[in-house]
Amino acid sequence: MGELNKKVVIVGGGITGLAAAFYMQKEAREKGLPLDVLLVEATNRLGGKIQTIRRSGFIIERGPDSFLIRKKSFGILAEDLGIEKELVRNSTGQAYILLNKTLHPIPPGSVMGIPTQLGPFVTSGLFTLGGKLRAAGDLFLPRSGIKEDQSLGVFFRRRFGSEVVENLIEPLLSGIYAGDLDKLSLNSTFPQFKEVEEENRSLILGMKKTTPKKVPQKEGYGAKREGVFHTFRNGLETVVEALEEQLEKNSVMKNVRVNQIDKAGEKTVLTLNNGQTIEADAVIMTTAHEVVRKLFKPHGLLTELQDMPSTTVATVAMAFPEESIVQDREGTGFLVSRNSDYAITACTWTNRKWPTTTPDGKVLIRSYVGRSGDESIVSLSDSDIEQIVLTDLRKVMEIKEDPEFTIVSRWKEGMPQYVVGHRERLEAARVEIAKQFPNVKLAGASYEGVGLPDCINQGKAAMEEVLEALF
Ligand code: FAD
Prior knowledge:
Blueprint: E1 6-11, H1 15-31, E2 35-40, E3 52-55, E4 58-61, E5 67-68, H2 73-81, E6 87-89, E7 95-99, E8 102-105, E9 110-111, E10 114-115, H3 118-123, H4 129-136, H5 152-160, H6 162-177, H7 186-189, H8 191-200, H9 203-210, E11 229-232, H10 237-246, E12 252-253, E13 258-264, E14 267-272, E15 277-280, E16 282-285, H11 289-296, E17 310-321, E18 325-326, E19 333-336, E20 344-349, H12 350-353, E21 362-369, H13 382-396, E22 398-399, E23 405-416, H14 422-436, E24 440-442, H15 452-470
Helix pairs in contact: 1-10, 1-15, 5-6, 8-9
Bound molecules: flavin-adenine dinucleotide.
Flavin-adenine dinucleotide binds near residues 43, 63, 64, 291 and 411.
């Protein structure tokens, strides 16, 4: 570390912080920049929400299990790390919506719940005749003309009515955010739907135009198509291990928390929980926004982040011997409609979707519990959660004996919610912080996309901004 080098501190060692550190060191090496990068992580491990457990031949993800291939940054990172050969694609198959006690196939041709083929919608058991007729109203309704941000619920209910929203669109979309459709911002989550309405008026006709035809009717949604997700053969944590290995020596501090942030002239001073202080020329904050808000509160900054809630969820992975499960349904899993009396919100038949995760002769099932406004289940004991999940699963499949083992992973305030007005709130926060701390950047899941590729993009963008400001 050179005396005269510029110093950049990255706070938080999740995928955002790791990507920022990796690419910043790469740039510094390639361009010969006099730069020291230090990543500070509060826990004793890197990866943040990416956590893989490898146990008895199973590969179990506590948090995220894969990423969308279409969003390129993760694949590029894998190539940059030389681990792209370890990537595996998901197996596709029928996915269902659980409504009351029935698993209904997701109608073929539905794109994020929006019909692009009318036949399968008309025959689907997910909706009443009245619900179907109301949804067809989309074909005739004018554009809303609403310019300002609105909730996904308001937007979709206007076009399709409540039934299609609650029994199909909501489970599909809110699965990504564990959120409440009536609060989530259209502009910050799925702005493409607003554009489709603006351009085509009808969402059905607009989505039909942009969606490839020939989804096989018989096998249903997603069948016979290529999987659209990637993970690594040995679990998502492969990327964290590669990043940790390739980050420069002495550029990571684990088990130390940033407790305070102050200004000293042009520099930013970070105080750690071990009493140490670090002077930085620039800082990239990649922790959840709640942590950022608390750190800048003494400076009277970032109060608007207070209006940004997060949802608490848990994943529950259960391992069984094959013979103890009778699964007469083909497919990869199901999402649960809020209109049904279940604690689980989603379930993946992981051994089918990701065959590399499960040894021969075994079954791996991963369920989700906790959703916006209904999170108390997550604070129950592991064994209580296990029993509740088993009771729910037994309503839809025969489970002859309890699992060989169960792993419950809690994510307290783990899902940031982009509620209506998110973009404006974020913009105001950035303007405000830039006035007092021009070289402090905010990046990560709380801001511009929760998906892993979005986080990588944000880490990269923040490091580019910092380099631009410093050199
Ligand atoms: P984090 O991973 O939360 O990292 C922040 C880091 O900051 C943590 O390591 C934390 O310990 C550290 N930190 C906090 N405070 C301090 C401090 N004061 N000082 C120093 N360090 C601190 N996305 C997908 O693309 N695909 C999926 O399949 C998917 N599934 C998901 C399933 C679950 C259950 C959850 C919770 C999320 C899922 N996501 C998924 C979203 C994705 O996992 C996250 O958005 C992403 O991992 C967030 O990365 P991050 O680096 O922004 O934050």
